[in-house]
């Protein structure tokens, strides 16, 4: 087996049986579209969990990230409350997206509509190396706009 390709078990839950499996919109897309398993109405400023009707089993050493869809963000001001949702390899529950309506009008996410994206990635292994001082860098400890670009 190619180590760069994860074999991910997926199951469609009873309320998602007739929905498409998460799928990429193009051959080089980084993420797969997730589909809403129920209709959700979001008032301005409101957030709700949107079920997708699928659960997965990631191999150890891999993670999945639930991300916002740029189309929903650009057209309706809909994003994810937590920015990115992390799915660990030991989680077996339903994938849900915590959508929020940042816009000024009510938004309806219809059942079967693409509501979020799922990106699957290998985790980097690391260990902490405790030290008294960090190596210097040109940037140093400057952050939060210190580079002058925002």
If you had to describe this structure to a student in words, what would you say it looks like?
The chain is mainly beta. It has one domain: Deoxyuridine triphosphatase (dUTPase) (Deoxyuridine 5'-Triphosphate Nucleotidohydrolase, Chain A), CATH 2.70.40.10. It contains one helix and ten strands. The strands form three sheets. The protein has a four-stranded antiparallel β-sheet. Strands 2-10-5-7 form a four-stranded antiparallel β-sheet, with no helix packed on it. The longest helix has 7 residues, at 70-76. It is globular. The N and C termini lie far apart (44 Å). The model has no long low-confidence stretch (mean pLDDT 93).
SSE diagram, text form:
Blueprint: E1 9-12, E2 32-35, E3 40-42, E4 47-57, E5 62-67, H1 70-76, E6 78-80, E7 84-87, E8 94-101, E9 107-109, E10 114-122
Antiparallel strand pairs: 1-4, 2-10, 3-9, 4-8, 5-7, 5-10, 6-8
CA radius of gyration: 19 Å
Q: How many individual helices?
A: 1
CATH superfamily: Deoxyuridine triphosphatase (dUTPase)
What is the approximate shape?
globular
Count of the separate structural domains: 1
The main β sheet shows up as: 4 strands, antiparallel
Overall pLDDT, averaged? 93
The proportion of residues forming helix, as a percent range, comes to under 10%
DSSP summary, beta strand count = 10
Share of residues in strands: 35-45%
CATH topology: Deoxyuridine 5'-Triphosphate Nucleotidohydrolase, Chain A
If classified by CATH, what would the architecture be?
Answer: Distorted Sandwich
**Secondary-structure element order, N to C:** EEEEEHEEEEE
Question: Major sheet: order of its strands?
Answer: 1-4-8-6
How far apart are the termini?
44 Å
| Class derived from helix and strand content | mainly beta
Low-confidence stretches: none
């Amino acid at each position: 087996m190619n180590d760069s390709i994860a074999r991910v078990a997926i199951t469609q839950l009873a309320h998602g049986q007739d929905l498409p499996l998460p799928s990429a919109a193009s051959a080089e897309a980084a993420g797969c579209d997730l589909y809403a398993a129920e209709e959700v109405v979001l008032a301005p400023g409101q957030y709700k969990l949107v079920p997708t009707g699928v659960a997965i089993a990631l191999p150890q050493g891999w993670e999945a990230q639930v991300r916002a869809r740029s189309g929903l963000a650009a057209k309706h001001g809909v994003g994810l409350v937590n920015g990115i949702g992390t799915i660990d390899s030991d989680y077996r529950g339903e994938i849900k997206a915590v959508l929020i309506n940042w816009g000024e009008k009510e938004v309806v996410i219809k059942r079967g509509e693409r509501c979020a994206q799922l990106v699957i990635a290998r985790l980097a292994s690391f260990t902490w190396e405790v030290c008294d001082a960090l190596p210097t860098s040109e940037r140093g400890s400057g952050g939060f706009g210190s580079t002058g670009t925002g």
